[in-house]
Input
Amino acid sequence: MRIALFADIHGKLLLPFKLVELYQRETGKTVDLILQCGDMGVFPDIENLDKATLKHASRDRDELGFYDDFMQVEPEVKTMLDKLDLHMICVRGNHEDHDFLDAQEQAHAPATRFPIDVYKRVWVCRTGCAQEFEAGTEKLTFAGIGRIGDRKGRSEKRFLQDYERAELKKLIRSKTDLDILITHDKDTTGDPGYGMEEIRTVLDELIIHYHFYGHTGKPCSNELDANGITRTIKIKELEFDEKGALPEGCMLVLEKNGPGDFTLDVVPHALLKRVMKFNWRTF
Output
């Protein structure tokens, strides 16, 4: 089983699928699932853009990719997605239309994940709910923690909500072992004034092989967590630089070979550099 991992796509929901298509074509290796660490840039109504997205969208139409490509059937997009035939499962970030996501989550309750697009290829997992994905004889166990933490007691929807804290407490009590934890925010290690305390608690209380996150703007990194068990991986944001190129560390591939047996690869920059700002929709 192979899982491609991305973070902070900011409206470019089609790009991870195109990168997986390129990866499969160039390597001959099949990817079974995409996991994405928040800031999807899901705004089905452009009147509801947050300030940051509105600012970026005024200069870059890619920020509106969910509205352009995933709210109504686009024949070319549907053909590509049907041929690729895989799902992208995400957590919420802080730059999303949370009213829309709340409505979708409630409509699909008590499901642990729910589709948000017209093709039913993009799914969001509910915070704190253990998930399973099967491919062949392999099974992946994972959970997600969406949104960001807060130290000022704010209740805006970009911050972790009380009902999600309750779900995380249930997950901890279940003592469920996880292959993967995906989050948008980081934990509080190294900076108690930044990050999400609840992520730190989950990492301390459960056995988790890998934790992937985005959000911070820092380079890709791979470190042993303070718990001495989990590999904590910062994924570089999927953003084109000033030259129109993708950064190294923005696409990872995790292969599960058996229970507790994993191989993690950073997709080489030699492959990524073929995908540029000016050609990513047509390469």
